[in-house]
Amino acid sequence: MDGERVSEGGIDDLYARLKRFAHQFKDCFSRKPTHGHLLTYMAGQHSSLQRKSIEPMALAANVPPRTLQEFLGLSRWKHDLMRRRVLERVLQRHASPTAIALIDETSFPKKGSKTAGVQRQHCGATGKTDNCVVAVYLGYATAEFHALVDCDLYLPEKTWAENPERCKEAGIPDALKFRTKGQIALDLLRRSVAAGAVFKYLAADELYGSSSEFRAGVAELGITYVVEVGRMTSGWTTKPRFEIPDSIHSDGRPRTRAFRTENTRAPRRVDRMWQRGGPSWKKYQIKETEKGPVVWEARAQRFWPSYRGQALEESWLLVARNVMSGEVKYFISNAQPDAPLETLLHVAFSRAEVEQVFQASKSEIGLDHFEVRHYLPLMRHLIVSLASLLFLEEETKRLRKKTAGGAYARCARRPKRSLTGQSRAASENEGLSRPCAKSIIGSAAERNPQPHTVEKQFAYCM
């Protein structure tokens, strides 16, 4: 670690703390030298290097670059066990009965065609269709802490999953088949729940929320979701009636498909509802920034989503509109009928947490700096990065508590600047994650408390 950086703001023993942190993964390695390479790799990710790929990290640590290359690609160690250890530590130290599962993906722009999973596709990092690799992540968010706890690589169907020769060249296991991003997200969620994770809520963007299969999978796990959906989503705000005709098919089979009764209107798109009237709007302050408060107004209604002409389970439809920009977002939730609008809105906007974690992981530990091409070293890099980011988040939390009301230095590769720590006031909202709060990046004004109505603080009835 950079010696100059660790001497400021009370950060005087980060390398020693990182060494103790890495010790918990000792049983993932059969040989002591291999475990030592883990510490070298993680220390490089927390260093002040501008580029945190294998070669500069190895040279900074005075070890041959081939050593770290072999650590990721050739050495025998249990990376899946390391992934479980990350989740176990989060559950042991930061668990909350009201934890929110955050589902999102992030992309890594790459040149060429050899990196596992790469293809031209939507790239969030560049904001356009680009050559990139995409990974799906599961985040864990509470009032006081948030981290990434699991991830998996997205393998495009046409260009990779259906091309065994290309997969073989990139070292992709034969058992790895095509899965949609929603299916990957459900696998991550199920794997974490099976390992002991308890999530009360889940938030995801419309890529996942618009999938009825994904929503059903989350509901089967007993998790309350508030997921964004596209404006083309349709359904009913009054319970539709369906009947199965008494007639039979031409081949003699009885009809089993239900059809809308004459008194049931066709489903309407969510962006075309309430063009006149509808539920009243209520204003909520989502966060406080240096430029002032960010205010959205919202309204909600019980809703029956439509899928292939049929009505799905009764849900909530939540519509939120930015007061300044006019941007409109639509959310669907399986919350109970008496769930407060404040709670739904809180969970809906908590997804910004994972976006801030992605920012930190790329700018602080070089998540997107990898230059490996094969599947195994790529996955190992992503898993080690989960651990590095967890260490970064824990140290940030420790220093905020230690210097509450004072100043502290960021553990960052960029030029140092002090941030003002603030002790979080106890409230009845304790236990919920802070929506739209920055990770370790951003000004103190952006590390805000719970969102509140313009008139008063939210009163969560959880």
Radius of gyration: 24 Å
Query: Helical element count?
Result: 13
* Sheet with most strands: 14 strands, mixed
Tell how many strands the DSSP assignment holds.
18
Task: Assess the beta-strand content as a share of residues.
Answer: 15-25%
Structural account:
This protein has 462 residues and is of the alpha+beta class. It has a domain at 5-205 and 355-409. It has helices at 14-23, 32-45, 54-60, 65-73, 79-94, 157-161, 164-169, 181-194, 206-209, 212-220, 341-349, 352-364, 375-402, and strands at residues 100-109, 119-123, 128-141, 146-153, 201-204, 224-229, 234-236, 242-243, 259-260, 268-269, 282-289, 292-307, 310-311, 315-322, 328-333, 407-409, 418-420, 452-453. Strands 1, 2, 3, 4, 5, 6, 7, 10, 11, 12, 13, 14, 15 and 18 form a 14-stranded mixed sheet that branches. A two-stranded antiparallel ribbon has the order 8-9. The chain has a two-stranded antiparallel sheet with strand order 16-17. Strand 16 and strand 17 form a beta hairpin. Helix 2 (32-45) packs across helix 13. The chain is globular.
